[in-house]
Design brief:
The protein is mainly α. It contains five helices and no strands. Helix 4 crosses helix 5.
Length: 87
């Protein structure tokens, strides 16, 4: 019997979820930087899918968006796991 493995249709990077939260609050990148303490170059890298999440950044996002640290870390680890299955 042939086994079929389900593959994600689209792999969403952490930047997608950050942008989603920013749009919900009608914030731009400068506002997020000011409120979170994350510098603009790091935010740009995250939003443009050039950098993965660090513990410190996950904590900052958790504080500013009112979502848990674990939420952000799970999103990032799911992305990394799914990205490996596609490669």
């Amino acid at each position: 019997m042939k086994s079929t493995q389900l593959m994600p249709y689209r792999i969403l990077e952490i930047g997608y979820f950050i942008l989603e939260q920013m749009e919900y609050r009608e914030w731009d990148i400068n506002t997020l930087s000011e409120k979170s303490g994350i510098n603009l170059p790091e935010l740009n890298l995250l939003l443009n899918y050039k950098k993965t999440l660090t513990d410190e950044t996950a904590k900052s996002l958790a504080n500013v968006f009112g979502l848990s640290y674990q939420y952000w870390m799970n999103l990032d680890s799911n992305y990394k796991r799914n990205a490996r299955t596609i490669d």
